[in-house]
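User: I'm putting together notes for a lab meeting next week and I want to include a structural view of one of the chains we've been expressing. I don't have a solved structure, so I'd like a prediction I can at least talk through. The sequence is below, exactly as it appears in our construct file.
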Amino acid sequence: MKTIFAATGVAALVLSAGLSLAPRPAAAASFDCEKTDLVADEKVICDTRTLNDADVKMVTTFDILTSLLAMGNRDQLRQEQSDWLKKRRACEADVQCLTTAYAERMKQLQEAFSGLSKEPL
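Assistant: Thanks for the context. Below is the predicted structure for the 121-residue chain, given as structure tokens.
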């Protein structure tokens, strides 16, 4: 497990460095910013660099965590993600609400990572 977390830390560092140097992407990690039917929260995420970066970080973390979990726990994590997306959508175009939603979700995902490291091998 320790190796997985070390690799994850390296991946996070590489991703973080890449985000700060890259031009504004045409897509956030979880949806295409070029779509014509974006809803309010998606539009703001696409137009606000910090929210776009938060989306990339959150989705990348979610994907990595999903791949590490046992099948039953994956379903629970996916349901939690679906519930969180509804909460994010309810923020509409409120940048502060979206910022808070991403911070809370990252905290939850990081706690799930911490829980993994405490499981016996």
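A couple of points you could mention at the meeting. The chain has one domain: 2-118. The chain has five helices and no strands.

User: Perfect, that's what I needed.
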